[in-house]
Design goal:
The chain is of the alpha/beta class. The chain has 8 helices and 7 strands; from the N terminus they run E-H-E-H-E-H-H-E-H-E-H-H-E-E-H. It has helices at 14-27, 54-70, 87-94, 101-111, 123-136, 145-159, 165-180, 209-221, and strands at residues 6-10, 39-43, 75-77, 116-120, 139-141, 185-188, 206-208. Helix 1 crosses helix 8.
């Protein structure tokens, strides 16, 4: 079996990166340590803000990708949906393929049979999912402006360590509003979202973009017992 080294652009944010690593490990059908994916990682919480300084973020992500290539990475993954707006810069700087978690998650949601998909994401993530879902043949439901402000507050809370009961209830309530507006399934389209919303409290079938990315990495990197 051909094994590929995974280069991981992390730190956006740190809790989401740790969540991805746990899901990557859980998704690997391993019988021993040697069956798991070899990962080289740059957990860089100082990537410039993807909303306020996209040019700076793209440049730093490109530098990170090149360093990961030099450390032996053969394919890249990045557990941050919003930062996928810089996919072109990342691939150009490293000459490596970045597994597209947005496209993979949109495809998985649509292949489940849903034609109207509710997306909980940052504004930048919404734009990426709008294009991916249109390509996949589905309509998208997103929060209202007021609800998006609440969502961003919850995301910032996760980055500050708030994973409490009230925050989980708030995220579930926002998901419920999308279902009321016609969403047949939901996408956790920001990697902080599944730290508050999971299959236990989601009001509709949920596609966790972090988990989708982890499973795709296992497939691409050839992990698992031979």
């Amino acid at each position: 079996m051909t094994r590929r080294v995974l280069g991981m652009l992390g730190g956006m944010g740190p809790a989401a990166t740790v969540d991805f690593l746990a899901k990557l490990q859980a998704a690997t059908p391993a019988g021993s340590d040697a069956d798991h994916i070899r990962v080289v990682m740059d957990l860089n919480p100082r990537v410039p803000d993807r909303h306020a300084d996209p040019e700076g973020a793209g440049a730093e992500l490109g530098r990170m990708a090149a360093r990961l290539r030099d450390l032996g990475a053969e394919v890249l993954a990045m557990p941050c949906n919003t930062a996928h707006q810089h996919r072109a810069e990342i691939e150009a700087a490293s000459d490596l393929t970045l597994i597209d978690m947005v496209a993979e998650t949109a495809r998985a949601a649509v292949e489940s049979g849903a034609r109207t998909v509710g997306v909980l994401a940052t504004p930048g993530g919404e734009r990426l999912y709008a294009a991916a879902l249109e390509t996949a043949g589905a309509a998208m439901v997103i929060p209202t402006d007021a609800d998006r402000a609440r969502l961003m507050g919850l995301i910032k809370g996760v980055k500050a360590g708030d994973l409490g009961t009230e925050a989980r209830a708030g995220m579930a309530a926002l998901a419920g509003l999308l279902v009321q507006r016609g969403a047949q399934t939901l996408i956790a389209g920001c990697t902080e979202v599944p730290l508050l919303l999971d299959r236990g409290n989601a009001p509709a079938p949920l596609w966790d973009s972090t988990e989708v990315l982890a499973r795709r990495c296992v497939a691409v990197c050839g992990a698992g017992a031979a």
